[in-house]
Amino acid sequence: MKHNEMLAMILAGGRGSRLKDLTKKVAKPAVSFGGKYRIVDFPLSNCVNSGISVVGVLTQYESVLLNSYVAGGAHWGLNTRDSGVYVLPPREKADENLNVYRGTADAISQNIDFIDNYDPEYLLILSGDHIYKMNYDDMLNFHKEKKAEATIAVIGVPMKEASRFGIMNTDENGKIIEFEEKPAHPKSNLASMGIYIFNWKTLRRILIADMKDPESHHDFGKDIIPALLDEGKTLAAYQFKGYWKDVGTIDSLWEANMDLLDDRSGLNLSDTWKIYTADASELPQYIGEKANIDEAYMTQGCIVEGDVRHSVLFTGTEVKEGAKVTDTVLMPNATVGEGAVVTRALVAGGVTIGKGAVVGSADSENILLVARNVKGEE
Amino acid sequence: MAGAYGIVISTGNNINVEGLQDYRPVGAFSYLGRYRMVDFPVSNLSNSGIDRIQVYVSQNPRSLAEHLGSGTQYNINPKKGKLQLLFNQDSRVNKIYNTDTAAFLANMNIIERMQQEYVIVTTASMIFKQDFQAFLKAHIESGADISLLYQKVNDAKTKYQGCQVLDLNRQKGLNSICVNTQTANERNVFMETYVMRNDLFIDLIKRTAKTSSVYSLADFINEEHANLDIRGLQHKGYFAAITDLKSYYDANLELLDIRKANELFTSDWPIYTVTTDSCPVEYKKGAVVRNSMVANGCIIEGTVENSVIGRGVIIKAGAVVRNSLVLGHTFIDKDIHIENQIIDKWASIRHVKEITADASNPGYVKRDDVL
């Protein structure tokens, strides 16, 4: 049997309430992205492409769809003999009652038995709500080179936005000396990407102590990283250069989709680092006789008879004759009726915009989320 | 419900598709940009709850073997069911020996071991959807020995060259099977699909071989029609037969009529295929696309009209592709004009200014060629 040097755990329990109606019945990692994908396809595909074969997915909030989506792991080829994707919701144990995951660290603590089964050297912690492509094996090599106890992936953000992130302050060798969660006066612009590699033995010990600490928030950023720093352990910052985006709000989710239309954005899904997803049994997209397409990102199952400009169309969407769709994201099976005009909007899955309806506007500050059917002309 | 297993024939002696056939059997031909022909019979069988399926191939098995895999993409449970690729060596002496009967004989031990009471034989050279459970039920209820599936057509003078047609009496009993002579428009085209008991099937194969080494099963059934109760069962709905390059081209492009496509593709009868994990299509500024089907993974900067574009095709700015079938991973450079062409996979069109042909006789560009 191949030894699992590094096991990955994806924290997928968050509510994602800033995505409003999109996460009403669906956990954030299961939200659709980029025409045919779901957000969780990105960390899972990164794992596969980095040579990781066992991934735990920690779920809690509205996890029915997410569970059925990731279970089995076949979409990512993680269904071979020694690989697997395991959905890990909170469970009742022999010596204690059912506890919900009290924080990101607690979610791992409650699954120490699962991790121990694989006896990994290293544990990779990921979050299920970012769009990026990253080779975790490169990060592991860096972690070994630095002889660190923990390595945290960081990305440079504009200084004026740094106070929105968890900021790592490092010395000249890239060693982390301080971690500040959303500092009012940031000392550095290196934001944590929520991607950690830990030496499992060390993390395991700290987690067991953390579980018993009544003062703890059981959170990696607030409790575990500071505890390691207090012990004087070596924590390394692994600087990532490339596209990375938190898609936690309607605006940022829309922006990340629009980045697919921009060659300069750095987000490219057509290179050899493939993102895998469930396949839809749908026809190739059909562009009609009277359609006009100008800058669009579209997937199979779409039918376009109207005008589509600078927009992203997901599986099974339909744009009827005379309709105009501009700067818009249409999620799976959304329909835009004849002559309807949709501008700067994110239309949720299955929503129908009626004939002749006008939705959104070119000069709106925020992106309009359309989560309910819009009535058109009778 | 009585059990049946399925047999899919993926080659055919009456099929002559120049170019494409040099590389793969008809079952592995690309269809509508993302499918292969074999996806239709296998999906039909799987959707009908028939999960023991044998696909016969006699040459160039690589592309089919790769495509079929273990069959899980066809919704076949690999524990309960099985998708088998059965190989027989084509005769090098003379192609008249390469009959379906020869393929069945080469795999007779497997056919004799099948536990199912009935066998449904169908083809990968024709496109249609058919509920085989309903077909089997109609066959059993009729009490016939063999039932043959056919399509009533009114354009047999110009199409279905080399196909077999059924002459049926008023009770749908078989008078004869013969080759379409293209002398009349109204014909019952045999869809190379039949159902019978497996023991009768085994008996017929053995007797065919004893009668003539160059007889197909249909040839023998035709001779035996007086001794057996053989009936036609009519199929309705979309139907296309691939017999030559033109019919292959037409069968793809005619589905740009979305009503026709909707007849073949319905949500309750999915046609499965293998995913290649290609990303969605990117249409750049300046792209003009009309009445076309485009498979995932393409990057389109130029003009595409009345065409079917396969996966991962790149069409650069200023290029014009009209009335063409462009198979996967082809590259078409700037300002090149393509009209009425079938461009095989991985071709790269860089140095010529235009490739055009007459609509009635589409051109063919070879696989992997650089032009």
Brief overview, please?
The complex is a heterodimer of chains A (about 375) and B (about 375). With about 375 residues, chain A is of the alpha/beta class.
Protein model, in words:
The complex is a heterodimer of chains A (378) and B (371). Helices cover 19% and strands 28% of the residues of chain A. Chain A has 378 residues and is of the alpha/beta class. In chain A, the strands form 6 sheets. In chain A, strands 15, 17, 19, 20, 22, 23, 25 and 26 form an 8-stranded parallel beta sheet that branches. In chain A, strands 5-4-1-6-11-8-12 form a 7-stranded mixed beta sheet. The N and C termini of chain A lie far apart (64 Å). Chain B is of the alpha/beta class and 371 residues long. Chain B is built from 10 helices and 28 strands. In chain B, the strands form 7 sheets. In chain B, strands 5-4-1-6-11-8-12 form a 7-stranded mixed beta sheet, with helices on both faces. In chain B, strands 14-17-20-23-26 form a 5-stranded parallel beta sheet, with no helix packed on it. In chain B, strands 15-18-21-24-27 form a 5-stranded parallel beta sheet, with no helix packed on it. The A-B interface holds A 34-36, 74, 260-261, 269-270, 274-277, 279, 281, 283-300, 303 and B 32-34, 72-73, 256, 258, 261, 265, 270-273, 275, 277-297, 299, 304, 308-309.
